[in-house]
Amino acid sequence: MEEVVIVGAGIAGLATAVALKKVGVRALVLERSKELRTTGAALGLFANAWVALDALGVSDKLAALYTPMEKGYITNVKTKSIQEMHFPSTRNGAQQRAVHRKVLLEVLAEELPPNSIRFSSKITSIETQVEHGLSTCIVMLDDGTIIKSKVVIGCDGVHSIVARWLGLRPPVYSGRSAVRGLSVFPKGHGFDPGHAIQQFVDVGKRAAFIALNDKEVYWFLGAKCPPKGMEKGADPEMIQREVMENLAKDFPPVFLDVVKHSDLSSLTWAPLMFRYPWDILFGNLFRSSVTVAGDAMHPMTPDLGQGGCSALEDAVALGRHLGNSIAKHGKLVTQDIGFAIEKYAKERRLRVATLTTASYLSGWVQQDGSSRFMRFLRDVIFYGLLWGRVVNGIIEYDCGKLPSVSSLPSRESESSI
Questions:
Q1: Which residue, among 306, 273, 302, has the nearest Cα to 208 in the 3D structure?
Q2: Potential cystine with 27: which of 4, 168, 349, 393 (Cβ 3.0-4.6 Å)?
Q3: What angle do CA 10, 21, 126 make, to 5 degrees?
Q4: Edge-to-edge strand ranges of the sheet holding 197-202
Q5: Exposure of 211 in the CB half-sphere (CA atoms within 13 A)
Q6: What's residue 94's pLDDT?
């Protein structure tokens, strides 16, 4: 019997567990893999993510490791023209940084009590039952284990079992795919981590690289057509060769050199999926004491870099609503959980539906079409006029703070929660 079961030990799952710990609730995190998964190598965390990380109490640990991103450059592969791009400052002073995904997961995991994460635990089904007027969730694992819990939170990614149980429609293919990798320069790459956000746009393709530190560079390439012969789990050398000899063959030498220095173990290819915004606005994001967070709720394309950021927002919002319920009643009461989760879902619907829509449209503008109108729309309207306003409107979001410990039950009474 557990208080809370979280399915998935990705960014959303670990961050949610940390948020719940801070409000006095211990959660069991079930992860199907044998260890923390680091697919994707790295990610950009914008100011709104750092607000969430601050609420979780881990922002200082990460900020000390990475240089803030201040500006970057966008190169048109065909015309060779270059535009300068600035990242707007925020009211709270938070700055954008690119971080290793593995480091982010490890920092979050270190905040949790021992044995909070159970690896090699694949769920097969979820049920709810009512006993004495109270609803209980039953999670079944493929090894025959049965876990009862007051709350189940699905943080199990794009193809979420929990989202399917809630009745959410499956994500759809965006028409684009992405290759991601981490490049290592043992003697140093020479890029300024604060100014090294280099983007390259072409017909149906967009790529970028970001310096993480003095020796490592994160890069990605998105394209309308998947690499030839690529399947999930494809040979890394084949992925690298396909990028250099086909997809990015006309890109500037500086990008090809980054790809050439790739750590092959970090290379991945995957189709970019997203959930229709109307499915988020009107779909079942919760049922009783079961809900979803992160990609399980709102898979989106990475064109605005908000996938991981919004997952961190989810964690704080969910912890805040459950924590407020505890502060009010002195314990996690089963009949109050549904109200807290309903408030969480209501708060997140519009926000994440907007992010999903904006991310998809951003990708469409930046890499779809070859007509003069599309180039004008991308280079003049989007990059020239809208970029700063769009990004600033997104990253100014404040997901709030978690209830203070003083307002919550003491450690001595935690066993009664």
A1: 302
A2: 4
A3: 55
A4: 82-86, 71-76, 197-202, 205-211, 216-223, 172-184, 268-274
A5: 21
A6: 77
Please give the pLDDT value at position 405. 54
Angle at 273 between CA 15 and CA 347, to 5 degrees: 45
Both tokens of 126, joined, read 């979820």
Indicate the SS3 state at residue 387: helix
Below-50 pLDDT ranges, the chain? 406-417
Domains and CATH numbers, the chain: 2-65+101-171+275-370+399-416 (3.50.50.60), 174-273 (3.30.9.30)
Residues comprising the chain, all counted: 417
Cα separation values, 202 from 208, 269, 354, Å: 12, 19, 26
First to last CA, the chain: 13
What is the pLDDT at residue 227? 55
pLDDT at 152: 96
Amino acid at 75: T
Concatenating the DSSP letter of every residue in 289-326 gives: TEEE-GGGT----GGGS-HHHHHHHHHHHHHHHHHHHH
Give the three-state DSSP class for 50.
helix
Q: Per DSSP, what are the bridge partners of residue 199?
A: 74, 208
- Residues 206-215: tens digit of each pLDDT: 899 999 999 9
